[in-house]
Amino acid sequence: MTQADVLRALDARAAGQWGLVTTAQAKLDGVQGVQLLRLERSGALESVGHGVYRLAASPPPEHLRIKVAWLRLDPGTPVRDRRTDGPRSGVVSHTSACAVHGLGGRPHDPVELTVSSRRTTRDETVVLHRAAMDAEDITVVDGLPVTTVPRTVVDLLEARADAARAGAFVAEAADRDLVRVDDLAPRVAGFAGAYGLPAEASGAELLEFLCEQAGRPLRARKAGRSTEKVAGPGAASTPERKRPTIWEVAERAGVSHQTVSRFLKNDSGMKPATRARIERAVAELDYRPNLMARSMRTQRSHRITIVLPELSGFVPIPLLRGASTAAHEAGYMTDVVGLEGGESRRARSVLSLLETRQAGGVLSLVPLGDLAGGQGTGQRPVVVLGEYDDNLQSRGRLADGRPAEEILRHLADQGHRRFLHVAGSQDWASARNRRAVYVEAVERLGLTSYGVVDGDWSVRSGYEAARDLPADSGVTAVLAANDYVALGVLRGFQDRGVRVPEEMSVFGWDDEEFTRYFSPSISTVHINKEEVGRRSMLSLLALLRGEPAPESEVEDLFHLVPRGSSGPAPG
User: Residue 40's pLDDT is what?
Assistant: First the structure.
């Protein structure tokens, strides 16, 4: 295929998809990667994203980043054949939908797409949401499937978008008649509590509140209010007077709306003359503070958010229990939320929670980049536990492997001399540490290791290790990486007819609840995660009160719990 033939094939593919073509689409026409590279070097193609090219002869399309990200969801399927309900489907949503609708999306925002099935991306500039999407919630703008304006509002509120930003989007959409507020109000009423409004607040009140936060109050007719009052049968109707806003008070008093806000908070540092002007403006306008805004100042300041990564399959319940108990004892309520994306995106979400007063403080179990809390971080009410990574994999104190040596000493005192270790996934620091300590301690204590089996934390890996252990191995004790692996080891030996603990001792790790009720009950290592959570929350509470940070180290973090699965070495 000559270069001219290649360009003709690419031009045909790019037609109807904004002058863009993917590597996967090119391969369907027999165009190989090396040919694309040559065309790029010659200037005929421009790389605009991983595996996506723009024909240089085509004009740069609007919203290029969004279109590239959408193409990459299903790079082998031409735009004309793409569906919105297939397994690889996707719809432009959230802030990206705002941008496509021309309603204030910021160019530096991550591209946000909603997909119908569980998917991940390594591209930090793209965020994938998972949700069902009805046909009536999708429209097409410039060839892109995009959530409708009403659905976009619902998505933004469900994602706890910044109140002022969501309000600006609603106000602009209403001004351009892209949404009817009366129709939208019932769909958003359920989010009122998430934005600190009273439980009985209506959707119309929520929308009005959001727009006020943006400095763009809705006109009365668009907030779902009646524009007329009827005094009785046959009475003439008169327009209802619109409730004055904080901005009108500020204008009448000749001050900023922030100054009026300080007045409403009873700021004692305000000049008497300024206070008098605001009091006069409030009286003349018959201004009554918005109850929803008051809720923002009170209820939210007594809520603490505990942050986990999005859709984590592991939730450290004991740690959360300790943290929540400490918060409740101090008069705070707690919310546990999963925040998607990497450190920087989670950090932005946390800042939004704090700026909109949806949280008075934040305890994060996962990293937040530069937002890591403490007395020296701009006094932000944020504490990062530091014991887990982005995927809630243990690190730091919780990944300490030294109890493995205590287990070996305990079993050696009972006569055991030859051991097997069934390890956890080596992607985890805790598994690597336990394995390293096991290997070093066997040698230091003068014991013998039959070997280390590479496991993956699963019951299956423990079962297979026990099943495959030769009968003449001489092993009398197994150290399992966690309690689930230990459970598999026990079951594997039971199926072989090996008696536990009479012929084989088994030790687990983590003190999961089931270990007490299995037969035999499983020997394990208890980790005082509840105290770790409690002390982390106490550090956050001290930060909120401006007090010195308390001692965070937990004495006796680990201790052995021998049970029925371990005993003296056989005769």
Answer: 86
Q: What is the DSSP string of 313-361?
A: S---HHHHHHHHHHHHHTT-EEEEEEE-SSHHHHHHHHHHHHHTTS-SE
Of residues 167 and 221, the one with the higher pLDDT is 167
Q: Which of 139, 130, 173, 134 is nearest to 153 (CA)?
A: 173
What are the tokens at 185? 């109000």
Residues with Cβ < 8 Å from 266, sequence gap 6 or more? Answer: none
Burial bucket for residue 107 (CB in 10 Å: 0-12, 13-18, 19+)? exposed
Q: Indicate yes or no: pTM above 0.70.
A: no
Name the DSSP letter for residue 507: E
Write the single-letter amino acid at 419: F
Write the burial class of residue 170 (CB in 10 Å: 0-12 exposed, 13-18 middle, 19+ buried): buried
**With the C-alpha atoms ordered 398, 404, 410, 411, is the resulting torsion angle positive or negative?**
positive
Query: How many Cβ atoms from other residues are within 10 Å of residue 532's Cβ?
Result: 24
**Tokens 């300490």, residue?**
400
Is the predicted pLDDT of residue 242 greater than 80, yes or no?
A: no
State the number of CA atoms in the 13 A half-sphere of 430 facing the CB: 21
Task: Return the half-sphere exposure (C-beta side, CA atoms, 13 A cut-off) of residue 495.
Answer: 14
DSSP string of 211-250, one letter each residue = HHHTT-PPPGGGGT--SEE--STTPPPEEPPPPP-HHHHH
Output the six-digit token pair for 529. 């995660």
What pLDDT score was predicted for residue 289?
Answer: 58
| pLDDT grade for 398, boundaries at 50, 70 and 90 | confident
Q: Indicate the average pLDDT of the chain.
A: 83
Query: Which tens digit of pLDDT belongs to each residue from 222-236?
Result: 334 433 333 344 444
Confidence of residue 219 (pLDDT cuts 50, 70, 90): low
Dihedral of alpha carbons 321, 322, 327, 329, sign: positive
**Helices (H), strands (E): how many in the chain?**
20, 20
- Give the pair of three-digit tokens for residue 369: 């980049």
Report d(CA 360, CA 299) in Å as an integer. 9
Please enumerate in sequence order all residues whose Cβ is within 8 A of that of 358, keeping only pairs 6 or more positions apart, or say none: 160, 194, 195, 196, 300, 303, 305, 352
Helix 403-413, helix 429-444: angle, nearest 10: 40
Tracing tokens 């008696």 back to the chain, one arrives at 499
